[in-house]
Design brief:
Blueprint lengths: L3 H11 L12 H5 L5 H17 L5 H14 L7 H19 L1 H9 L7 H12 L2 H8 L5 H21 L9 H21 L4 H19 L4 H19 L10 H11 L24 H9 L11 H10 E3 L7 E4 L10 H17 L13 H14 L4 E3 L3 E5 L3 H8 L2 H12 L2 E2 L4 E2 L3 H12 L10 H17 L3 H5 L3 H5 L12 H32 L3 H27 L6 H27 E2 L27 H15 L9 H20 L9 H6 L2 H21 L3 E2 H4 L7 H27 L5 H21 L17 H24 L6 H23 L12 H23 L8 H10 L13 H8 L5 H17 L3 H14 L11 H7 L1 E8 L6 E5 L5 H43 L11 H28 L7 H21 L12 H16 L4 H16 L4 H20 L7 H10 L1 H18 L3 H16 L5 H13 L1 H12 L7 H21 L5 H17 L3 H46 L1
Parallel strand pairs: 2-4
Antiparallel strand pairs: 1-2, 3-4, 5-6, 7-8, 9-10
Helix pairs in contact: 1-3, 3-4, 3-5, 4-5, 4-6, 5-9, 7-9, 9-11, 10-11, 10-12, 11-12, 11-13, 13-15, 14-16, 16-17, 17-20, 18-21, 19-20, 19-21, 21-24, 24-25, 24-26, 25-26, 25-28, 26-27, 26-28, 26-30, 27-30, 28-30, 28-36, 30-32, 30-33, 32-33, 32-34, 33-34, 33-36, 34-35, 35-36, 35-37, 35-42, ...
Length: 1371
């Protein structure tokens, strides 16, 4: 906010002379007390103009104004003290410079011999003396009134100081010394008068001294004389007399530090004690800590003046583009010790030990909110937050990075001031901590500080890094816990902010990666060392592991953000950034790979590498250090620096690093343009698949180099005995085969940069299969087993390895089979088998264990899915490039694809509802049978039956029970009879009735019921788990069908024949309907309970199938070269309409409608087209008459909107009937709307359009009759329905103007009469307007028809006359 002086200067600039009389003179004094700074400034400006500057200025008004201003200083009303003090300061300045002050003295005081300065001080003291002023008025002063006068004196003294009239200038030096000393004495008296006056008076003394400091900078020796006089004769004797440094108050410290900050103006040796010794030093800070901590009573955002003086004492101005950045002094005044040492003592003694009450052991009591707030303010200032100094203006401190890291933001300070406050929730209401807004504001202020804003300055970036390191050292998840982006903003790794890259920024990121990786290594060594050697500190080991996992996440997040970073640079700088991004991401991948999958304890450098393992071929030059090798050596060297051997990381850390490796690699392949290219020239000319191959090839290259140089793979060697050597050799052979495929693919790309389509397809297929083989090869990378597990590797891993080896072998052959020429039918068959093999392999990869997520695999499934997509695109592209004209996708391939997503082919799926109804009816399993078996088992145990017999019965029950969806209800009587033993029968003595005796203890029936329920729940859970697993596999395989139908770049349009649509559409729709029905049934069964685990997967699968049907299958352009026979098309059309009839949801009905329209679009023959569309006619009759039908209006509207010509052919006649005979007014209204659309649309199919026009003309009369009937129907004459009828009638009449004859004239005349009646009887304005429009349209149409009829009659008569003339001539 602006001060009053600033507003006054603005007012003086803006206000013109003609406005100087706007505010009356006496009213200006009221304006000075306004709460608005603008209003106060305007009032002061008007007052000064009237008294001193304007043409009407006079000494009498000036003297009155002088006294009135002095009195106003003592007013406590509103903002009077601020307004009057500011105006008094300007008044003195102008009056002193213009000589008006002498006239005021003459008007006010008879003693004109005293100096003007003495006069001003005397009047000020007289007016602000509470005893004299109040005793004259009230006799006795109140406390609040005395306070107003004391503050009035303080504000008056400050006004005199700021007016500049105390500036010494030769002649008046004695007066200045006298008055300045007097004012200092006045301030000291105020200081000793009341405790609450100490800080304001200290501020007044500092302000007075600062004015003389500023004057001394202009080489004014007089100012130095005055300064020495004030310090020696006034300040020290009256303010510091008899005081030791340890007894100083905060205000005394502020004044003393202010004086010692300008020791160049004093002779230190001659200064009286205690100013001749260092007030602020590392040794005195502990003794002053109590006084400094006492300033916590000052409420934020204002801080005590001692801190303002303290930071100015410790810092000096530094040249900066912002002009307000200060740096710590190399040596403090008086003591000559570094300011950094004083700051370190300040943070330790004052902040840590006193304000936060933390002892040397890191523990302490809970400090008050006020003390924490003061500590936050100190930390904010020390870290570069803006300080709003009342004496020096706003400035920031650019603290050294090492000091920031080692002394200011210590772990204890970060924890107490940020984590404990921001993350705390106090009380039963769980409300946020009271200081949370302040702590968040401090973090935000530091991040946005000018000291950190220079992103091209190494010092500024080092401060950013140090700040981030201190926060992360306390908690690796600092941003997550505080729910801020502090660390990411400090490191300039925020995705939402565009960053300008430069070398200094890259160096900061590199240092950050060094820091994070070093912390991972340190924490891993600590965790492993504690567990291996100490055997007792399990908690410390767990904490070290937790810390390592946190830093692993930081490393992964940094790599992801660098990958996604948007950099605002020119082309040259962008190239530098891409190079940096490539190197830093490769380095992080190398670290994750070396630490997660390898034992690097025996790793040697490239110069002294060990002998290669047998079976590995040297394919790359190992003389240059690969990024993976470099990181492996770094791991080994770090362990050696601590005199330890880090063979492997703890398993929990390896598992996390493995997960992050695969996730980061998946991100790199998804953003392939952001990583290093093997060949920049080729990568620019080829597609993304080539760049992905380059990334994967680089990873495999690093892997082989590591093993060549002595690293041990944890996945390959763990638990291997002599019998497994053949399997290891097979894996090595597969890896070599992948490397050979990579080399061949890259060589093929170089040869086929500019070739024909077949060569391009060959390259694409080879590269795609190589990508998939490379990704499968990476599945051999495993992080080993847990340290606590000593068993052998699971047999599943061996099976997985066999699958990988087999799939890699198949991928070597698939491109060769696909890319052969097709000279005859045999080759064509082999070619198709090749694509089938690729499809089956892709399905196996997606539905196998590799396609599912795992603890150590991270985003490996995503990586595999992308690789499968590359291979699948390459295979289908190759087939399309070499296929003959009219070729289509093989039935076996299509069947495999559909089966993989749970869709049965047309031959396997039934078209009737019997199968569905059977499944629905058989919902109750053999629960009764199961109940009997459980009871027999319980009874068997009671009488000692063998377990084998019981197991046989259980197996029979399991085989016989088909479903147990319903809960078991036990009949108590039946249960009791089962538990009775006849041998234990006794007679009742009273009535002679024989009864059974219950053999089991009480509660046996409840136990058996629980046993039955437990068994049923277990079976349900197992079945749901299997369903979920199967749905998950199907969901992953959808990508194959989706990619096929997406047809990127229209690469295989020749394969997407119409016949393929006919084969796919019904099975997809049926499967979607079955899944939706199963979900509805599950939801009904789980009402009020937790939903089944498989439901989410099924729901996702339904959504994917819906997307396939509506956005892919029904949107692509199918080739019409190969058509299904007309019988098959009719069957499919009928089945699709049946599916629409059986739709159990709006979405299913919409899918059926879209598929019907798409089917019609694929038909090339016109007759077949009309025949297939005839199903709409039958369906429309059902829609209009059958009450239980599930057909919806949208089914016909879709056809009308997308194929209007065909709809005109097949729908006009049934719609005219429906408009007249439908079972409800709503359906009649819908029929009229559809008719109106049909009569207003035209198409681009010439033959169909002609038939459609013919249909419209032939059915015009029937449509008019339907309209006339509706206009006589009371239900249809309601406002809403009548509008629809009249609107459609207008469209039909408009059509008849040019497309009919006089045969409809009579019906139109009747329509006109009916429309007129509607107009006369309706009260709706909309109906009136529509009926008027219809009548006008009918009149115009009748005129046109009459004219056309007359023209035809004349033409026929002239034709007859010509024929008669010709016959006469012949005769």
């Amino acid at each position: 906010e602006k001060s009053d002086d600033e507003y006054m200067s603005t007012s003086e600039q803006e206000e013109s002379p003609e406005h100087e009389g706007e505010i009356p003179f006496l009213d200006t004094f009221y304006g000075l007390a306004s709460a608005s700074p603008e209003e106060r400034a305007q009032a002061a400006h008007a007052m000064l103009q009237h008294c001193l500057l304007g043409p009407s200025a006079n000494s009498k008004d000036a003297a009155y104004c002088f006294k009135r201003l002095l009195n106003g200083l003592c007013s406590g009303r509103a903002a009077a003290r601020q307004g009057y003090a500011s105006a008094f300061c300007s008044f003195l300045k102008i009056a002193y410079s213009t000589g008006a002050l002498e006239e005021i003295q003459q008007e006010t005081n008879d003693n004109t011999d005293e100096s003007l300065l003495v006069f001003v001080r005397k009047e000020l003291l007289k007016t602000t003396d509470p005893k004299q002023a109040l005793s004259e008025k009230f006799g006795k002063a109140k406390g609040s009134e005395e306070r107003d006068y004391l503050f009035g004196r303080l504000f008056g003294i400050l006004s005199v100081v700021r007016s500049g009239i105390l500036a010494p200038s030769g002649d008046n030096i004695l007066q200045v010394k006298q008055v300045s000393a007097g004012l200092v004495n006045d301030l000291v008296e105020l200081y000793h008068h009341k405790k609450w006056m100490r800080e304001p008076t200290a501020h007044g003394i500092v302000t007075l001294m600062n004015s003389l400091y500023q004057a001394s900078k202009d080489s004014s020796e007089d100012s130095k004389v005055v300064l020495n006089h004030l310090v020696r004769d006034s300040i020290v004797p009256k303010l510091f007399a008899g005081k030791a440094i340890q007894d100083f108050s905060a205000e005394q410290i502020a004044v003393a530090v202010s004086i010692q900050s300008h020791m160049d103006l004093f002779d230190c040796s001659d200064l009286p004690a205690p100013l001749n010794q260092a007030i602020l030093s590392a040794s005195t800070i502990p003794t002053l800590s109590d006084a400094l901590c006492a300033t916590s009573t000052v409420v934020h955002p204002r801080s005590h003046i001692v801190w303002d003086m303290l930071w100015q004492f410790l810092t000096t101005e530094s040249p900066s583009e912002h002009g307000r950045v200060r740096i710590l002094c190399k040596s403090c005044p008086v003591s000559d010790e570094p300011a950094a040492q004083v700051v370190k003592a300040l943070m330790q003694s004052v902040v840590t030990e006193s304000l936060l009450a933390i002892g040397t052991d890191g523990e302490g009591s809970n400090p008050t909110h006020e003390r924490r707030a003061l500590a936050l303010s100190i930390v904010r200032a020390a870290c570069g937050g803006q300080l709003n100094s009342s004496t020096a203006g706003p400035f920031v401190i650019a603290t050294d990075a090492k000091l920031l890291e080692n002394a200011i933001l210590t772990p204890d300070i970060v924890k107490r001031l940020f984590l404990d406050i921001i993350c705390a929730a106090g009380g039963s209401s769980k409300s946020a901590h009271m200081l949370k807004p302040l702590a968040l504001h401090v973090l935000e202020t530091i991040v946005e500080s000018d000291a950190l804003s220079e992103v091209d300055s190494a010092e500024s970036l080092d401060r950013r890094l140090s700040f981030a390191k201190t926060l992360l050292a306390n908690d690796t998840r600092f941003d997550g816990r505080t729910k801020t982006a502090t660390v990411s903003n400090l490191l300039l790794l925020n995705d939402s902010v565009e960053t300008t890259y430069n070398k200094e920024l890259g160096d900061m990121w590199t240092k950050y990666i060094d820091f994070v990786t070093e912390r991972i290594l340190r924490a891993s060594l600590d965790a492993k060392g504690r567990k291996d050697h100490m055997k007792i500190d399990e908690e410390a080991s767990r904490l070290s592991s937790h810390e390592a996992l946190g830093y692993a996440d930081l490393l992964f997040n940094a790599a992801k953000r660098i990958l996604r970073l948007q950099v605002a640079t020119d082309d040259e700088e962008r190239a530098d950034f891409e190079k940096f991004r490539s190197s830093i991401v490769q380095r992080i991948l190398g670290f994750l790979m070396a630490s997660a999958f390898f034992d690097c304890s025996n790793l040697s450098g490239p110069d002294n590498k060990p002998k290669k393992k047998k079976g590995r071929k040297k394919s790359f030059d190992a003389s240059s250090t690969h990024s993976v090798v470099g990181e492996g050596l770094r791991i080994k060297q770090y362990a050696a620096s601590r005199d330890e051997i880090l063979s492997t990381f703890p398993y929990s850390i390896r598992a996390t690093l493995s997960s992050r490796f695969f996730s980061l690699l998946a991100d790199c392949t998804a953003m392939a343009s952001s990583v290093k290219h093997i060949s920049e020239e080729l990568s620019e000319k080829q597609g993304k698949d080539l760049r992905v191959l380059e990334v994967l090839a680089d990873i495999v290259d690093g892997w082989t180099r590591l093993e060549e140089l002595g690293a041990r793979s944890l996945g390959a060697d763990a638990g291997v005995d002599e019998d497994d050597k053949d399997e290891m050799q097979s894996a090595n052979t597969a890896i070599n085969a992948v490397k050979k495929m990579q080399q061949d693919a890259l060589a093929l790309v170089k040869q086929n940069i500019v070739k024909d389509d077949k060569e391009v397809a060959r390259t694409k297929c080879t590269v795609g299969c190589t990508i998939l083989a490379s990704t499968l090869c990476l599945q051999f990378l495993r992080c080993g087993t847990s340290d606590e597990i000593v068993d052998e590797i699971d047999d599943d891993d061996d099976d997985d390895d066999e699958d990988i080896i087999e799939m890699i072998t198949d991928l070597q052959d698939i491109p060769r089979n696909l890319l052969k020429s097709i000279p005859d039918e045999t080759e064509n068959k082999e070619e198709r088998i090749g694509l089938l093999g690729l499809a089956e392999l892709c399905i196996h990869v997606l539905s196998g264990p590799f396609g599912a997520s795992g603890l150590t695999r991270g985003a490996s499934p995503k990586l595999l899915r992308d690789a499968v997509k590359f291979a699948w695109i390459g295979g289908v592209s190759a087939l399309a490039a070499i296929a003959s004209d009219g070729a289509t996708l093989d039935d076996e391939v299509l069947s495999a694809l559909l089966t993989s997503i749970g869709v049965s082919t047309v031959e396997e799926s039934g078209n009737d509802d019997d199968r569905n109804s059977e499944n629905e009816d058989d919902s109750d399993g053999d629960d009764g049978e199961e109940v009997k078996v459980v009871f027999s088992q319980a009874a068997g145990e009671a009488i000692g039956l063998d377990d084998e017999d019981s197991d046989v019965e259980m197996k029979e029950a399991n085989n016989g029970s088909a479903s147990d969806e319903e809960d078991v209800e036990l009949d108590p009587a039946q249960l009791e009879s089962m538990l009775l033993e006849d041998s234990d029968a006794i007679l009742d003595d009273e009535d002679g009735i024989e009864v059974g005796e219950l053999e089991h203890h009480a509660g046996a029936d409840a136990a058996l019921a629980k046993l039955i329920k437990l068994k049923q729940d277990t079976r349900k859970a197992g079945r749901q788990a299997l369903e979920r697993l199967e749905a998950s596999k199907q969901l992953r395989c959808v990508i194959l069908v989706d990619t096929l139908l997406s047809n990127p770049g229209r690469q295989w349009s020749n394969l997407l024949q119409a016949e393929l649509f006919v084969k796919m559409v019904v099975p997809l729709l049926q499967t979607r309907r079955d899944l939706e029905k199963a979900l509805e049934k599950s939801s009904a069964n789980q009402l009020g309970k937790k939903s089944a685990g498989a439901d989410s997967e099924k729901r996702a699968l339904v959504e994917r199938l819906t997307s396939l049907l509506k956005t892919k299958l029904c949107k692509i352009r199918w080739s019409k070269d190969i058509q299904a026979d007309s019988t098959k098309i009719m069957e499919v059309a009928t089945e699709l309409m049946n599916q629409a009839r059986r739709s159990n949801s709006t979405e299913q009905a919409s899918c059926c409608s879209s598929c019907l329209v798409a089917l019609v679009k694929t038909i090339a023959d016109t007759e077949d087209l009309i025949k297939a569309a005839s199903v709409y006619s039958e369906a429309l009759a059902e829609w209009s008459t059958k009450r239980t039908t599930k057909l919806q209006t949208s089914l016909f509207d879709d056809l009308v909107q997308q194929l209007p010509c065909l709809a005109q052919v097949v729908l006009v006649a049934p719609l005219s009937t429906a408009a007249k005979e439908s079972r409800s007014p709503f359906l009649k209204s819908e029929s009229f709307l559809l008719l109106g659309t049909l009569f207003s649309r035209s198409g681009d199919h010439a033959e169909i359009d002609a038939k459609g026009q013919e249909s419209l003309k032939s059915n015009s009369s029937a449509v008019i009759i339907s309209i006339n009937a509706a206009l006589q129907d009371e239900d249809m004459l309601k406002t809403k329905r009548a509008k629809d009828v009249l609107k459609s009638a207008s469209i039909v009449v408009s059509y008849l103007k040019t497309n009919s004859d006089a045969s409809v004239s009579q019906d139109l005349a009747e329509m006109k009469n009916l429309a007129t009646q509607v107009k006369e009887s309706s009260e709706s304005s909309g109906v009136l307007a529509a009926s008027e429009k219809l009548v006008t349209e009918i009149d115009d149409c009748l005129k046109v028809l009459k004219r056309d009829s007359g023209s035809k009659n004349k033409a026929s008569e002239s034709t007859k006359k010509q024929k008669k003339k010709k016959s006469k001539k012949k005769k």
